[in-house]
Amino acid sequence: MADEKLEISNEEVAPSEEISSVEAVDTAEPQYDDELEAKKYQEKKQAAIEADKNKPFDPDALLEVRHLRKAFPLKKSLTGKVLSELVAVDDISFTLKKGETLGIVGESGCGKTTMGRTILKLHPSNGGQIIFDGKDITNYKPSQMRQIRRDMQIIFQDPYSSLPPRSTVGGILSEPVQVHKIVPKSQEKEYVLELMDKCGLRDYYYERYPHEFSGGQRQRICIARALSVNPKLVVCDEPVSALDVSIQAQIINLLKDLQQKMGLTYLFISHDLSVVKYISDKIGVMYLGAMMEFGKKEDIFGNPLHPYTKALFSAIPNPNPDVKMKRIVLTGDIPSPANPPKGCRFHTRCPYAKEICKHVVPEYKEHEPGHFAACHLLDNEA
After folding, report:
1. pLDDT of amino acid 78
2. Does this model's pTM top 0.90?
3. d(CA 222, CA 227)
4. Could you tell me where the beta strands, DSSP code E, fall in the chain?
5. Strand partners, 268
6. Ramachandran class of 288: left when φ > 0, alpha when ψ lies in -120 to 50, beta otherwise
7. Per-residue pLDDT, 37
8. CA–CA distance, 316 with 294 (Å, rounded to integer)
9. Which residues contact 230 (CB under 8 A, 6 or more apart)?
């Protein structure tokens, strides 16, 4: 009888143990192998890079960027091998047509300026392609770049430190005209005075030095210097961030007027969303070196897809005191670009982050016509 009771008790316990183990498996979170996921991501990215290398250039684009990467070495071995690096720009792709303005927004340190300088070949790129005016300039040497340097110019952020203090305005504006031989020497002064008039500078400023001008006037000189060689593309690196609000409006209106008169194409880098909304045709949102969202201005402001974009837009002040804005406050600090988080770069601050966001890099893809974003939440909605 004792044996029979033992057998019955075993039969009664076994099924309950089996059921509990099945329930534990069903309710458990999916497990991710970080090394395997990273390997899959790198293989997929490399396959996309190789596939895009063979694609024909866009005939309507003045600037086409494909999988641009820029990294700065942090530590090297005795033989010169890079042991660790800071990836400032990682896998950036976009197309900019003639006469358009692309606004690049994001927090300080996200890689906006580095991207602009890399496109202009002021920094050598570590990967990807830069196609300008139908030519692949990715591997151009300085001697080759000089031939097209006049077509690509930059307006720097600080008008106080970007002008040589010992040169007059006439000398500053005449130098690029002489180097690139824009006009005969006998017509240089007349050409410069005409350019100064376009940029709202008086003719008697010609003999003055930079320290004699206000911030807004200095930025006008910087704009005139960039336009002195009749460029096709101008990278505006936060050109109004160091100016008063009233002067900002004047400079932005000047840039728009010059764009219409001279047929310019702008890459406008800024952290002021109100300014970007006013001047841009397309907008790219960057975070920690990567593009989070990209699309037309109407799509980005009318229907932001990425949580980071929504958080940025919630911080825009509304001049109407009766309208209450629902502010999305991001908790935590921005991770170091030298040691970015695994999976989605934004998951450490995202209020909607899931387990998959911590391990798997979201795919940057088109969710609407011309509207790109990289977020797992959008994949779940689809």
Report:
1. 87
2. no
3. 9
4. 61-76, 82-97, 101-105, 127-132, 135-136, 152-155, 233-237, 265-269, 282-287, 290-296, 364-368, 371-374
5. 103, 236
6. left
7. 84
8. 19
9. 150, 182, 262
Task: Return the residue matching tokens 């940029």.
Answer: 199
- Joined together, the tokens standing for residue 358 give 């911590």
Single-letter code of the amino acid located at 145? M
Residue 382 tokens read as 């689809």
Q: What is residue 146's three-state secondary structure?
A: helix
CA atoms of 33 and 56, how far apart (whole Å): 37
Interatomic CA distance for residues 296 and 284, integer angstroms: 9
Per-residue burial over 87-120, b = 16 or more CB atoms within 10 Å of its CB, e = otherwise:
bbbbbbbbbbeeebbbbbbbeeebbbbbbbbbbb
Tell me the angle at which helices 245-262 and 215-227 cross, rounded to the nearest 10 degrees: 20
Strands 101-105 and 282-287: parallel
Specify the residue for token string 């927090």.
Answer: 107
> Could you say which residues of the chain have pLDDT below 70?
1-29, 319-325, 380-382
